[in-house]
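Onboarding guide, step 5: your first structure request.
Type a short instruction followed by the sequence, for example:

Predict the 3D structure of this protein.
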Amino acid sequence: MLDHAVIDGLFPADLPEPEELERLYPPRQLPAGAQVTRFGPSPTGFVHIGGIYVATIDRDVASHSGGVYLVRVEDTDQTREVEGALAQFARAFGYFGIVPDEEDSRGAYGPYHQSRRERIYLSYVRDLLRRGKAYLCFATKDELAAISARQQAAKIPTGYYGEWAIWRDAGPEAVMANLAEGVPYVVRLRAPDDAAGRRVRYTDVIRGEVENDANRNDAVILKSSDSSPRLPTYHFAHAVDDHLMRVNLVIRGEEWISSVPLHLQLFDALGFTPIAYAHIAPLMKQIPGGKRKLSKRKDPEAGVGFYIQEGYPAPAVLYYLRGLANGRLAEVPLAQALASPILLDQCGVAGPLVDLVKLADISADHIATLSGPRVLEAVGVWASEFDPGLAGVLEAERDLALRALAVEREGVENPRKDLRKWSDFRDAYGFFFPQLFTPVSGSADERLAPVGVDPATAASFARDFADGYEHLDDQQEWFGQIRELAAKHGFAPSAKEYKANPDAYPGSVREASQLIRVSLTGSTRSPDLHAIARAIGAPEVLRRVRALAG
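The system replies with structure tokens like these:
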């Protein structure tokens, strides 16, 4: 083992000792049972909806236990860092209102960027070297590749362990010679001598008793000495940070299960009390013949940006995610589900399926409970970023927008559910606005085709309707204008009579009504026609009907 003086010479002289760091980051004064959780985003430029899912659980478990939820940016792998990634993270989590108790701007256990904690990590690496729990390794990439090739040829587990760890038991003279020549090195954890063949058992908060092979590899804990800053690997950084930040429950994806044996070794070598792990099953997607993990490369809905750009209301998405975590929360009203605790022992070990059809239904139900002003405000915020043309119209036509939103939504027992997300607004309500609607005109307009009325008859009917139009308040009286005019133009009084003798009529009163509906909305399907007419006003009704008249 190297002399302490040699080891200390590899590090800044003013590094704190572990004891000083323990005093600087003391145990938290929290109630019994309080959980300190953390979420560790990496600045790689893509925020997966699974991150929102896990962070929601982190936030909820901490809040309901009287604990603390913190965000720690895991940026030790700076080669993968993407410019603007943290801004994307802030935007995504801001949209869903998942606010940490501690982060860069607040909290006594920072810094909350791993790249700013170099001195802390170096202190613990130095301590491990002093105690013989770690060693310097000068193995080159070519040497490591050769070791792996020989192991594969011998059909044995690959890795840097035992006799294959060529610097594990190197003498001080060889180490000192390389140091004198400035040969780059990494620092590796010395795995226990009896690690090979051993099994590790621990209790996962979600999965219960879990058993894995012990880690046999001498894992790198500090990256190459020729890099600056001298940053640790993720595994080492997480162990140090979780201990000093006094995290006592790590909630993370099940892909980390295989890392637990190494993490437990690190806690043991560092002299830290192991913490509890809860490994969440990943979000899945149904595919022909089965299901697979939601993929950021294949599935647009894997990215948080998809939900923001489509304009799914944050409460609806959070409600849906909470229902995926705990099935019981999907069976209660949204407000109750958002206020009820997520229970880790009710999280399944099979990945839940992300179903956008189900989410759309939930979102439509939620939007139907909102007042017109609240919907208009939300659509306006969304449109200001994703549909500036619509945003301008809504700003100029606020009163008309509120009248439109009131149609079959206000004062009714079962309000319309034609908005599933804010991006639906233009299609669902655009026809109310003169700036967004092109009136139906002429025999070539394909929007008239489904009505099935001869173009000349349609134009004559529309002309007479406009000439005699009265903007009446009473619904039945207003529709009476259509019925009377339909009879005048030879339309059958009912669909039944028209069906019995279709050659005798240009259509029934239904087709006559559809002519007015298409002229006002551009579609054969719409909300109540009288309510639409009242919302857009008499001048606009006449403009649109006269366009059909030609």
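Each response can be followed by summary notes, for example: Residues 4-13+121-280 form a domain with the Rossmann fold fold (CATH 3.40.50.620).
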